[in-house]
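User: Predict the complex.
Assistant: Input components as received:
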Amino acid sequence: MAGPPLLEIEDLRLGYATERGTLWAVDGVNLEVRRNEALTVLGESGCGKSSLARTLLRTLPRNARTPSGQIRLDGREVLGLPEERFRREVRWVRIALVMQAAMNALNPVVRVGEQVAEPLRVHQRMGRREAQRRAAAAFEEVGIATDFLRRYPHELSGGMRQRAVLAMALVTEPDLVILDEPTSALDVLTQASIMNVLKRIKAERGVSFILITHDIATSSELADRVALMYAGQVVETASAEAFFGDPAHPYSRLLMDSVPRLHQEQPPRAIPGRPPSLLEPPTGCRFADRCPKAYERCAEPPPEVAYDTRHRVRCWLHHPGGRR
Amino acid sequence: MTRWRDGLAQIRRYPSAVVGLLIIALLLATAIYAVTAIPYSEAQKLWRGGDAWQELPVNASPVWTDRIRGGEAPRTITASSDEVAVEREDLGAARLETTTLEVDFPYGDFPSEINLFLEAEFEQRQPFTRVHWRRPDGQEIPIEARRVGERDRFSISQDRQLESRLGFAPQIGLLTDAEPGTAEPDVLQGTYQLVIETVHFEEDARLHADLVVYGQVHGAFGTDHQRRDLAVALLWGTPVALAFGLLAAVGTTVTTLIIAATGVWYGGWVDAVIQRLTEVNIILPLLPILVMIGTLYSTSIWLMLGVVVVLGIFSAGIKMYRSMLLPIRQAPYIEAARAYGASGGRIILRYMVPRILPVLIPTFVTLIPTYVFLEASLAVLGLGDPVLPTWGKVLHDAQAQSALYHGFYYWVVSPAALLMLTGLGFAMLGFALDRIFNPRLRSL
Amino acid sequence: MSAPAATAASAPGSDSALLEVDGLYTHFELRQWGFLRTGTVRAVDGVSFTLDAGEATAVVGESGCGKSSLARTLLGLHRPTAGSLHFAGSELSSLGRADLKAYRAQVGYVQQDPYGALPPFMEVRRILAEPLIVHGIRRRAERWQRIQAALEEVGLAPATEIAGKFPHQLSGGQQQRVVIARALLLRPAMLIADEPVSMLDASVRVEILTLLHRVQQEHRLALLYITHDLSTVRHYVDRAMVMYGGRVVEQAPVDALLRHPQHPYTEALLSALGDPDAANAGRPRPVPGGEAPSLIHPPSGCRYHPRCPHAMAGRCELEPPPPDFRPRPEHRVACWLRE
């Protein structure tokens, strides 16, 4: 796991202009992803995890404001890069995206093989035959028979479509693949086999992943590290061992208790309450009103406490002067 | 429903919608004024023409055209025997009555026509009348001498004899002191007198006289070839146009929507029949059918409205609504409604139709002027309602009388302007509503 | 948890059962141009089970296994092709219009997509009034009283505030609560919940499942909980049946099914799932190859045989296994391995 960080995100903020003011979907996020590392960004819908992915790839909707902060790829700042250079040098060359609804990610009237080859033809100006050959290799890698290259998206099952979208992301051999809820619309067996493909690719290719999901069980299938988001902020960043074994933030703990488990006598417990509105977030800790351990100090914004070297928690309980 | 309330609140943000609404409000006010000021039966009677209009000039331009040109054109001047004293002289067996009607003529141009309307009351022997014209300079011109009927009329400007005596058309010759044959005679301004000497042969005999010196301009909209004031037609055309447009749009939209929803809901052969009917109906040309019905059967505006609605039901709208309703039919909330036992009719009316109403409103608003234009086109083609005054009929008359050839631009311009204003008002509102209710069209 | 219903899950026809499904087939004809038959989708292909009053059963299977078609057939939304459906003693297909409407009041329906399940142009008050109007409750005050009670029962308070909102103004969890309130309004005897939590956030899922479980217990409702996710089955239902290719392959009390799965397909489903654990990332999960079977051209014999690691040549691809091998007392399995 050692090595220089591939991606560093520093104090990233992203807002959307709405009729009732600015909605800060990402509000001061710090993250890093190392080479061949899989980071899971975990969170409920509306916590800002998809906005984070969109900011990284600059596929933001039109009402988004210009993001602030820093995104460094191999130490080089890319957030301020002009659009044309970003398109040529970063998007799909260094960072690729696998979207949630695989049916929508594919053009229904173009053969799958051509769509998978498309990034190569655009970004590497590769010849048709060579691109097709590479697309076939990518298909084999994700576990689809190459005769499906000549099919149209509707002729593929949901699982195969998701694999085709994955092949499209991998074909340019990017360093980082962002997976936005890659399996949430799929059946259990299909989910498991796609996660198997991802595990194999990570081991064989040394790619880094950012897996964005709300499903804790799914997140544990790939994660080396976990970042838990709540109301636009990262509340805990930890290694998978620490997070799934002994989470530090009260929200992380409650969340782990809310997971339905196959082999556990105790029924899962829901977390009472609802996340705050991002239009008017609380000034202090954003989880305070749902937190069983909240105390006076939580009315102030909590700092990110470095629990140990790569384990950070945004909580007053873990502050040196905090109540443990 | 907040969705509607929000939508209406947003209208204020679209200037075009506000202007459209103002135009529509203006038209509505006009329509209401027309209907209250001139009752329906009255409007029909007036439009039939006749005596009601005898004191109006033929083909007079609106007053405002004269204002633009400098205000020289004469207005219509009338003088009645009721307003002046009568001199009586007993002749034994008969009685001579002398009536002097005075006309003050200050205009720089000649009148378009001069008529004298006479009504005589007698039992057996008609009175005998002699008429003189006295110019301001004292010159007397005999005009005519003859017996007078019960309702009689001396068409002074049509008098060929008088014309040859004067060397000008009478309405010119009587009002100038220029030598006969002068190319551009000047008007002699001042007070003219028409002296009517009547010999009555009966004790109770009376004569009533009205002199009309017709002007060249009239009212805000002018008159047509039958002396009818166009204001009546243009005013009354507003409620007719709005009612036709609105009823046709409502009739076709509502029925089309319900039929499309029925087809989508029941599917199978019901849908197939509706679709085939629509496809056949789409290729049937509407205008020729209306022309045929108008020619062979009746041109009543209400019959036309009925035919337009009936032919409009199975129109292309069915295909559009069907494509909008098909995904809605699959919506889980429809399935839920079936599961708790809602009937097909309830599902169509309460669950499917309301879903697309917001999208429909703009289409509906822009549809109204389409039907207004259709009605006008029918009237222009000579298939207008025979008794009702409408904008289209005014245009038709104008065309039949070669209005543009004769330079009667006002005859064409005002109805056309009203039609365009109607189209503009509804279109501006409709397009704005489209942006409000179809957020996809809105730019961020 | 109500008493294990294993003993009651006897042959169809027992008197205690609220719902008896016997040899149910729901097929759909594929047609071209409205009349040319081009194929048959065998969505439900011979399903038998019983559901007692107050019993909760899960139907587990992947998409396309026929579980939703089964739900819709039970709701009277699809006409069964063959087989019988007895509800409280009367045969569903023999019901007249009025009786069918009365039956629909007896069965509540909770759908997958809570936002789609609520008409977007109606306020919650109106949405909940609809079923009451349909079932002839004319007095506005009575309707409001019942709506209020239903909203409070599902934990949406204050009722007056929620009643004035439109679906899009509610969160996903609140929307699903409204859907549940609607399903409870007519005081049903049975609830059919088709994937009620699969579109919700992980943290809201437990809330909704707990709520469903609570109302099921409080009203002694029969519950058919349809899901693709075995991990959400435990704690909330008494029994579970696993469907594959339009057929039930295994049914058992839920604990027995999770601990001692008897059918290879159930085993595969269980091993594809895991509880959150950092060790998961390191090891691939065993997953059977192949795709879910076509319902138009289903495999011969046992429908799982093309993917089954234990398929016995000469047996499994030829004869469909009968649905009631009993390798353990409380299990019923359709698998030749358990003959």
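Chain B touches chain A through one residue (CB under 8 Å).
Let me know if you want any component modeled separately.
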